[in-house]
């Protein structure tokens, strides 16, 4: 699991080392790791370190010092290293170390025109961004801002430029703790972050600017809970409940699905198909006969009925997808939410939510639905506000409803009422299509049903019991995103084909977790 800690948490964790006079040792470990990543990238790109041109951008703080010491190490390996000093002050010792190793430092005055130096950087093999780290107060400004703008103009945007940009600790210009980019940012191809990821590397535009994330363990220990977490493959693999020889169809998990209506029958087909592909014992479908007939065409194993929730024994429920203008589906949604079982509440069923529920109720709104949900509780928010600060509003919604909230988007944000926050960025943009959310809710519903009676699930996931449903939702987002990536490899994603990609994704995940022979 990637666990991000705020800038102040990192400083607190670092304090005992500084008090013990080990600040320089930490810095050298950071520089060593940063240089190692640069060497690896140069090797991968077929360029090699010896003779490579490297430009170190250095600000006034320790972030600049890390970058300069990394530059020293690269110079000792035969790289031609130029440091561009973008502040009045610089960590002099690290600059001298670079110069002793054969590198050159160039100080940029506040009124200098940076174009020539920016062009030199654009032509380099690697640019190391040591302008701002966790001490950043606001975005890039002054000469650093002008330099980054001139560099971007000369080099072109990421993906087209020839110089690889490696961010030291974090890309300069992102909000350390919220990932917000209000001005200019130096988007990186890779980020080498020290001690722990910072929240801004997992959230919003900051995550997009970070490129490939490398986390360097400095042996820090944290007393606080992480601000944001992202599940990795192994976390999802550990969570998935594998069938044993003692299992039967009821013990593997039964998901009740009240989805679809005369107007939107397809949502039921998609949700049921995705749930079955995720691997459970049974799906009980509740809804109009005509919709059930369609569900059966695609998923003959689903057990269908037109009855109420009380007559359909299940371990979890999924309610809402496509269930519009249908009083019986509305009643089933309300009953499922009141059943005490884990329940995924999507789309139309969000209107059936009582004032307060528990974390076992997993809401899956998009930004528009979340805006409505908050407004219904007296909290007026524009959809655009939610889109620009998804973590903040998902947490707010979890707090006021008591539910687990999965906010859909390119990055999926999951908030637990305890304040725990998960972000998953596993999706393909090709997944932005009608019906995609129905498949996501089917996956989350199936995971919930298979884990509902599993007392060890939270331990396996490494979270507190109260946060289990948030992990389940985040795991669903990872599986859904991966299935989308698989599907997109064949061309534009057709959502009704997505269930066929879910099985192989789960097979891959479980393979990864299998002990080595
Ligand atoms: N905390 C840790 O455990 C470790 C931290 N290390 C490094 O130290 C960094 C933090 O160092 P610092 O605290 O010196 O912070 P920074 O290196 O981020 O720089 C802070 C300084 O930059 C200036 N500044 C702040 N905002 C600015 C802005 N918007 N525009 C221009 N200048 C601005 C201020 O003068 C401030 O003193 C980390 O990011 C990391 O790279 C590493 O050396 C290893 C260990
Ligand atoms: K930086």
Automatic annotation (TrEMBL):
Enzyme Commission numbers on file: 4.2.1.136, 5.1.99.6
Keyword NAD: yes
Domain of life assignment: Bacteria
Domain YjeF N-terminal, residue spans: 10-226
UniProt keywords, alphabetically: ATP-binding, Isomerase, Lyase, Metal-binding, Multifunctional enzyme, NAD, NADP, Nucleotide-binding, Potassium
Cofactor note: Binds 1 potassium ion per subunit.
Binding site for K(+): 63, 129, 172
A single BP term in Gene Ontology: nicotinamide nucleotide metabolic process
Chain residues that bind AMP: 408-412, 437
CDD domains hit by this protein: YXKO-related (cd01171)
Recorded GO MF terms: ADP-dependent NAD(P)H-hydrate dehydratase activity; ATP binding; metal ion binding; NAD(P)HX epimerase activity
Cofactor: Mg(2+); K(+)
Ranges where the YjeF C-terminal domain occurs: 232-509
Pfam families: Carb_kinase (PF01256), YjeF_N (PF03853)
Catalytic activity: (6R)-NADPHX = (6S)-NADPHX; (6S)-NADPHX + ADP = AMP + phosphate + NADPH + H(+); (6R)-NADHX = (6S)-NADHX; (6S)-NADHX + ADP = AMP + phosphate + NADH + H(+)
InterPro entries: Carbohydrate_kinase_pred_CS, CARKD, Nnr, Ribokinase-like, YjeF_N_dom, YjeF_N_dom_sf
Residues where (6S)-NADPHX binds: 62-66, 133-139, 169, 267, 322, 366, 438
Similarity remark: Belongs to the NnrD/CARKD family.
HAMAP family: NADHX_dehydratase, NADHX_epimerase
Subunit structure, as described in the record: Homotetramer.
Described purpose of this protein according to its UniProt entry: Catalyzes the epimerization of the S- and R-forms of NAD(P)HX, a damaged form of NAD(P)H that is a result of enzymatic or heat-dependent hydration. This is a prerequisite for the S-specific NAD(P)H-hydrate dehydratase to allow the repair of both epimers of NAD(P)HX. Bifunctional enzyme that catalyzes the epimerization of the S- and R-forms of NAD(P)HX and the dehydration of the S-form of NAD(P)HX at the expense of ADP, which is converted to AMP. This allows the repair of both epimers of NAD(P)HX, a damaged form of NAD(P)H that is a result of enzymatic or heat-dependent hydration.
Name this protein carries in UniProt: Bifunctional NAD(P)H-hydrate repair enzyme
Organism: Arthrobacter echini
Designated gene of the protein: nnrE
């Amino acid at each position: 699991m990637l666990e991000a800690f705020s800038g102040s948490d990192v400083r607190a964790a670092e304090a005992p080392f500084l008090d013990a006079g080990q600040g320089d040792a930490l810095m050298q470990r950071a520089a060593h790791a940063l240089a190692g990543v640069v060497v690896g990238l140069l090797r991968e790109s077929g360029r090699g370190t010896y003779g490579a041109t490297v430009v170190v951008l250095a600000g006034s703080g320790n972030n600049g010092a890390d970058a300069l010491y990394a530059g020293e190490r690269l110079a000792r390996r035969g790289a031609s290293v130029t440091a561009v000093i973008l502040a009045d002050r610089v960590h002099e010792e690290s600059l001298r170390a670079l110069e002793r190793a054969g590198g050159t430092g160039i100080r940029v005055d506040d009124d200098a025109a940076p174009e020539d130096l920016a062009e030199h950087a654009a032509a380099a093999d690697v640019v190391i961004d040591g302008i701002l780290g966790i001490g950043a107060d606001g975005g890039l400004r002054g000469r650093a801002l002008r330099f980054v703008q001139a560099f971007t103009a000369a080099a072109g945007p990421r993906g087209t430029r020839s110089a690889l940009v490696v961010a030291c600790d974090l890309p300069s210009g992102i909000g350390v703790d919220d990932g917000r980019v209000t001005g200019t940012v130096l988007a990186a191809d890779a980020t080498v972050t020290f001690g722990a990821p910072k929240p801004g590397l997992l959230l919003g535009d900051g995550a997009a600017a970070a490129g490939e994330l490398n986390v360097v363990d400095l042996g820090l220990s944290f007393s606080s809970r992480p601000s944001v977490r992202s599940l990795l493959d192994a976390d999802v693999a550990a969570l998935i409940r594998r069938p044993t020889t003692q299992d039967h169809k009821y013990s593997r998990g039964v998901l009740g699905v009240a989805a679809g209506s005369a107007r939107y029958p397809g949502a039921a087909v998609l949700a049921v198909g995705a749930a079955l592909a995720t691997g459970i014992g049974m799906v009980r479908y509740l809804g109009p006969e005509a919709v059930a007939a369609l569900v059966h065409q695609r998923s003959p194993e689903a057990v269908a009925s037109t009855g109420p929730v009380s007559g359909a024994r299940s371990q979890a429920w999924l309610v809402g997808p496509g269930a519009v203008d249908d009083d019986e589906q509305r009643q089933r949604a309300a009953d499922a939410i009141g059943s005490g079982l884990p329940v995924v509440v999507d789309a139309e069923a969000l209107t059936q939510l009582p004032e307060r529920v528990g974390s076992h109720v997993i809401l899956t709104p998009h930004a528009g639905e979340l805006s409505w949900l908050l407004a219904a509780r007296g909290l007026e928010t524009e959809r655009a506000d939610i889109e620009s600060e998804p973590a903040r509003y998902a947490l707010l919604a979890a707090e006021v409803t008591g539910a687990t909230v999965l906010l859909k988007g390119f990055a999926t944000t999951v908030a637990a009422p305890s304040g725990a926050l998960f972000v998953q960025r596993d999706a393909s943009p090709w997944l932005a299509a009608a019906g995609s959310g129905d498949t996501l809710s089917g996956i989350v519903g199936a995971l919930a049903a298979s884990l509902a009676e599993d007392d060890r699930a939270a331990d396996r996931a490494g979270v507190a019991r109260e946060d289990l449903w948030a992990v389940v939702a985040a795991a669903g987002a990872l599986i859904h995103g991966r299935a989308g990536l698989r599907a997109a490899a064949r061309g534009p994603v057709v959502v009704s084909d997505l269930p066929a990609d879910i099985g192989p994704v789960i097979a891959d995940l479980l393979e990864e977790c299998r002990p080595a022979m």
